Amino acid sequence: MIKKAKGFYETFDRKEPGTRATHYCPGCGHGIIHKLIAEAMVELGIQDRTVFVSPVGCAAFCFHYFDCGNVAGPHGRASAVATGVTRALPGKVVISYQGDGDLGAIGFNNAFQAANRGEHFACFFVNNSIYAMTGGQMAPTTMLGQRTTTTPFGRDAVKEGYPLKVCEVLNQLEAPVFIERVSVSDTKSIMQAKKAVRKALEIQRDGKGYAFVEFLSPCPTNWRMDAVTAANFVTEQMEKVFPLGNLRDRSADPAPVPNAIPQISVERLMGAGHDGASAQTDAGFKERRFKFSGFGGQGVLSLGLVIAEAAGASGRFVSWLPSYGPEQRGGYASCSVVVSGKEVGSPTVDTPDVLVVMSQQAAEKFASTVPQGGVVLHEASLPRPIARDGVRVLAFPASKIAAEAGTPKAANTALLGALTALDLHGLPEEKVLLALDASFAAKPALVDRNRKVYQAAYAWAKENL
Ligand code: SF4
User: Fold this and answer.
1) Which of 221, 224, 229 maximizes ligand 1 atoms within 8 Å of its Cβ, making it the mutation to test the pocket?
2) Which end of the chain is less congested by CB atoms within 10 angstroms, N or C?
């Protein structure tokens, strides 16, 4: 008598209890594969620590069957979700269950990269050479000549390419511990599939790494066949294209030991400046919100970072959020900096108290965002002046001062000198200078040159602004 596996729930609650045992079609391979997994889970004593990640497709309802932890990771993301579960919950046995449309197409890179990293989960891949749930379209695994709703004359290598052999692709990677292709088309094959499932789960139980099992599985409904003909189709057609067998078994090797992660307190990680100062709550400190803007290569992001580092070293709460276009040089660039006496709620700055502008494009983009009472400090050589009622607009010849001080590229440092001279950041000057020096740690020859620019700019701003 055929018994229900103990690893399944008693009832199939998606339908009215007692009306149906499964949502799968008669002759479908999913039911057999489910049973093999459920049995192995119970036999290995891992049911209470197993987390099952279900896919999109006909198997999307796996969580209605398996009596263990369940997470849905549809649309090809099951391997990514399984990665997250294994990392967040080490010691769990994690299963990613995916079909050939889900894993072989939209989710291929997720699965491939997880295999390449050797993530600690078992990936059970069901290959029925077709998109089943959506009505029988060509899948990556569809065989040459096979008719589907989107290849009515048969898959053609020139137009649609060749069937994807996932086991063989993964077998090029270093990390997987176990890779095997099995079939569920007849009793003998099912017995071999049972062994492969058990081995993949033993590898998880023992913490040894990534295991991949591909099942050749019939889909009588979309193949337009009866159950017996579909099973024969697996044996006679699919196994020729997707040969059965074990491609790799390194389960006898010792389990890998990851490098130890240094233990750093959250307080130290989040609160320390570059000289080790921790942020202190100071209700009397007026929060300042800055936007530094220009184009890539002007040192806009570095200027914001120096302010952020100086703020951190001064015991302030701070955030620094860069934003830039795809170009490495010459494209739009800006950063938002918040300096506060309390934890920063959001690092975004839509309405800056102080806007620093180094290009005309940035002026046009951000000048209107400065609220009444705010300050715009801009490079004086911009072709069109900035005019805003109720906003203090300061034209500052940063490029000219930097050039006259001998370092034309240090216009950003000149702006730093002006910000300090005008006390627009509210930070101690010695912390600002230490942060400036530290920003050139990799190029010590530039420290003195930038100090010179800074001093010249500071003096000019004190006298003229
Ligand atoms: S459509 Fe195919 S894969 Fe889906 S449940 Fe039916 S037989 Fe199984």
Assistant:
1) 221
2) N
User: What is the identity of the amino acid at 464?
Assistant: N
Res 275: pLDDT: 55
User: Which residue, chain included where needed, has tokens 């062994």?
Assistant: 195
The CA 31 to ligand 1 mean position distance, Å, reads 10
Of ligand 1's listed atoms, the one at least distance from the Cα of 230 is 7
Residue 328 CB contacts under 8 Å (≥ 6 apart), including other chains:
296
For residue 155, give the DSSP letter: B
- By DSSP bridging, strand 178-183 and strand 245-249 are antiparallel
Q: Give yes or no for a contact between 60 and 75, defined as CB atoms under 8 angstroms apart.
A: no
Which residue shows structure tokens 């008669």?
Answer: 26
pLDDT in tens, 137-190: 999 999 999 999 999 999 999 999 999 999 999 999 999 999 999 999 999 999
| Residue of minimum CA distance from atom 2 in ligand 1 | 219
225-263 burial, b if ≥16 CB within 10 A, otherwise e? beeeebbebbbebbbebbebebbbeebeeeeeeeeeeee
User: For a pocket test of ligand 1, which of 133, 219, 225 has the largest count of ligand atoms closer than 8 A to its C-beta?
Assistant: 219
Closest among 234, 130, 236, 145 to 182, alpha carbons compared: 234
- The secondary structure of residue 272, as a DSSP letter, is B
Domains of the chain: 29-249 (3.40.50.970), 266-464 (3.40.920.10)
**Ligand 1 and 93: CB distance under 6 A:** no
User: What are the φ/ψ torsions at residue 82 (nearest 5 degrees)?
Assistant: -60, -40
Q: What pLDDT does 387 receive?
A: 83
- Comparing C-alpha atoms, which of 118, 123, 75, 69 is closest to residue 95? 123
In ligand 1, the atom with minimum distance to the C-alpha of 58 is 4
CB neighbourhood size of 27 (10 A)? 18
Q: Which phi and psi (to 5°) does residue 363 adopt?
A: -60, -45
In contact, 253 and 208? CB cutoff 8 Å: yes
The number of C-alpha atoms within 13 Å of 326 and in the hemisphere containing its C-beta is 0
